[in-house]
Design goal:
Structural class: alpha+beta
Largest sheet: 6 strands, mixed
Bound molecules: adenosine-5'-triphosphate, magnesium ion
Distance between the termini: 42 Å
Strand content: 25-35%
Oligomer: single chain
Helix content: 10-25%
Number of helices: 8
CATH architecture of the largest domain: 3-Layer(aba) Sandwich
Order of helices and strands: EEEHEEEHHHEHEHEEHHEEEEEEEEEE
Length: 379
């Protein structure tokens, strides 16, 4: 438990050993869950390191909650293994897994005060009264709730209630805390504020967190690594930066970066670079090297913020600017590319260097910012 800093001794849960520094906090191998013919989660595997903040990100129905519920023990997998701290917990009851939970609905006990709610997990574990008082006080203070111990949940705002729920999960210092859209019921401003607080507490205590959201921005703000889920599968599990800059599938490029896609063919491999001939405009585009055979049909993917505006003769394509819109420090615009059925590229450029609607421009990109996928790769 060395990695869980903070004051006070760690608490042993009856019948369950806490994570040791030798075991990975959490690993999941080939988890699968079906409901009738429908596959909710398919071969999900991941290893999560101590102190990591990991997020499951995906559209509604992609299997985020089901995966989390299997880890928590509220849902039985058809197959696969879950280990916590090196111990196989796949068939253990939830309370024996030594995990903390925070759900979208706060699920506080309405008849208990804030202090009693937070004390509850410790009472359940037979922690001595003095120790409980001290730990509850510390935890409430950390969450900025010191003055609220005597209030009942209904006397608190939504954000305060969610903080109490967080305290209740934190108070017995579980090695891993699971959170399913814990900020989903709150307005944007409060969400932003609590995101910062959750991240600060996680870092201060070195907590290992698995968090579920369908909000890309929230995932990017909070996470060390993000598992992008799609149709029950983990499409890619990587750092936010890797997901942005090195998406492994067109789906990930689109889901996180809202990428522009253009079809073409590999024309030539030149050492560090791959040259692509674009189908419609006929322009030649240089990307970092991708191991694909000459002549293979491909689609390029570039994020709107990574496209550059240049002189018409200098780019890989030319076009006409549409709908240039000032949105703070950047301008968003479309560029109707010349040739063929004229695709529209989405562009986001610094306001100082932005073109105006109707302007004729060239479009270029740094070879390192261009991702390339075989045409038949779906997504
Ligand atoms: N108890 C159940 N019985 C039948 N199908 C289920 C059950 N629970 C989940 N599913 C199905 O499994 C799939 C994954 O659901 P899950 O709740 O994990 O999605 P999610 O990614 O959490 O979505 P959301 O963002 O909407 O919460 C969905 O197609 C869902 O309809
Ligand atoms: Mg869900």
């Amino acid at each position: 438990m060395a990695e869980f800093g903070g004051a006070g001794p760690s608490v042993e849960v009856a019948g369950a050993k806490t994570a040791t520094s030798t075991g990975k906090p959490l690993s999941v191998v080939a988890l699968r869950k079906t409901y009738g013919d429908a596959v909710a989660v398919d071969e999900a595997s991941m290893e999560i390191a101590a102190g990591e903040f990991v997020t499951f990100l995906g559209a509604s129905g992609s299997g985020k909650t089901t995966t989390l519920m299997m880890i928590a023990g509220f849902c039985d997998p058809d197959s696969g293994t879950i280990t916590v701290g090196g111990r196989d917990v796949t068939r253990l009851a939830p309370q024996k897994r030594n995990l903390g939970f925070v759900f979208q609905q706060y699920l506080l006990f309405p008849h208990m005060t804030v202090g009693e709610n937070v004390a509850f997990p410790l009472q359940l574990r037979g922690v001595p009264k003095d120790e409980i008082r001290r730990r509850v006080g510390e935890t409430l203070e950390m969450a900025g709730l010191s003055g609220f111990a005597g209030r009942r949940p209904r006397e608190l705002s939504g954000g305060q209630q969610q903080r109490v729920a967080l305290c209740r999960a934190l108070v017995y210092r579980p090695p891993v805390i699971l959170m399913d859209e814990p900020l989903g019921a709150l307005d944007k401003k409060l969400r932003d504020q609590l995101q910062v607080e959750i991240k600060a507490i996680q870092q201060e205590l070195g907590l290992t967190v698995i968090y579920v959201t369908h909000d890309q921005e929230e995932a990017l703000v909070l996470s060390d690594r993000i598992a992008v889920m799609r149709n029950g599968r983990i499409e890619q599990f990587d750092t936010p930066r890797e997901l942005f800059e090195r998406p492994r599938t067109p789906f990930v490029a689109d889901f996180l970066g809202a990428a522009n896609f253009l079809p073409g063919r590999v024309e030539q491999q030149t050492g560090a670079h791959t040259m692509v001939r674009l189908d419609r405009s006929g322009g030649l585009l240089k990307t970092r090297r991708h191991e694909l055979a000459t002549g293979v049909p491909v689609k390029i993917a570039v994020q709107p913020g990574r496209l550059r505006v240049c002189a018409p003769d200098d780019g890989f394509c030319t076009g006409t600017v549409e709908n240039a819109t000032y949105v703070g420090s950047v301008v968003r615009a479309g560029v109707r590319v010349d040739g063929g059925d004229a695709p529209l590229l989405r562009l986001e450029v610094p306001a100082g260097r932005a073109p105006v609607t109707g302007e004729r421009v060239g479009i270029s990109a740094d070879p390192d910012d261009v991702n390339l996928f075989p045409s038949e790769q779906d997504g």
